[in-house]
Structures are given as structure tokens and as C-alpha cells.
Amino acid sequence: MPICVLACSARALDFGPLSEMQERYGKSRDLEDLPDSKTTQPAVVFKPHPAKKPQIIPYNADRALELMARRDPLPPVYNSISDVTEIRKGR
Q1: What are the strands, taking DSSP E only, across 40-80?
Q2: pLDDT at res. 91
Q3: Residue 74: what pLDDT?
Q4: What is the helix (H) or strand (E) element at residue 5, kind and residue range?
Q5: Are 69 and 85 in contact (CB under 8 A)?
Q6: Is the dihedral of CA 79, 83, 88, 90 positive or negative?
Q7: CA–CA separation, 62 vs 70, rounded Å?
Q8: How far is the CA of 16 from the CAs of 5, 20, 59, 70, in angstroms?
């Protein structure tokens, strides 16, 4: 094994016969902003990144206000949610 493959802490590199690497990772040999692989014929295979699914957590304003009011072990910021959601006359 080449030292760069052994030393890669992210395990992003692999080494072996090109046919074996193509079986394992597919036949993608092109990268954006580099010359076309049909022209250069590189002896390399690039594993495509899987599409990331966004992990969107719905925002619940009432729940956020409840948590802010109960900041254990800290003292509460306000006593009631209405303290921050309603405008009182005369203030």
C-alpha cells in the first residue's frame, strides 16, 4: 500500500488494480474543472458523494419560549409566555 493511503485518517484513499477499484466504486473518472477523462485517460476512480438529505427540524415557537422560561438551573427569563408574546397597555 502507498504511504498516502495508509496515512489518510479519513480513509478517503484506496489503492488496487483499476478494474477492482471500478467494481468497488464505479467508473466515474471525471472531476469538475479538470480535463475530460477521455482525453487524459487517468488511472483513477472517484467515488461520487451520495446526495445529502437536508435535516430540517420544524421550529416550534411555543416550545422554544417554554424552554427559555425554564432555563434550569438558571433563573427564568420571564414568568409566562404572555410576558413576551403580548403587548400590555401603558408600557
Answers
A1: none
A2: 59
A3: 84
A4: helix 3-7
A5: no
A6: positive
A7: 13
A8: 11, 7, 48, 58
CA 24 to chain centre: 24
Q: Could you read off the pLDDT of 58-69 as tens digits, one per residue? A: 889 888 888 888
Between CA 2 and CA 89 the distance in angstroms is 75
DSSP character string of 31-59: -TTS--HHHH--S---PPPPPPPP-PPPP
Residue bearing cell 408600557? 91
In this structure, which amino acid lies at residue 88?
A: R
> Computed over its alpha carbons, how large is the radius of gyration of the chain?
28
Predicted TM-score (pTM) of the model is 0.49
Nearest alpha-carbon partner for 81 in 90, 70, 89, 91: 70
Contact indicator for 23, 15 with CB cutoff of 8 Å: no
4-33: pLDDT as tens digits: 999 999 989 999 999 999 999 999 999 888
- Please tell me what DSSP assigns to residue 58: P
pLDDT value at 78 more than 90: no
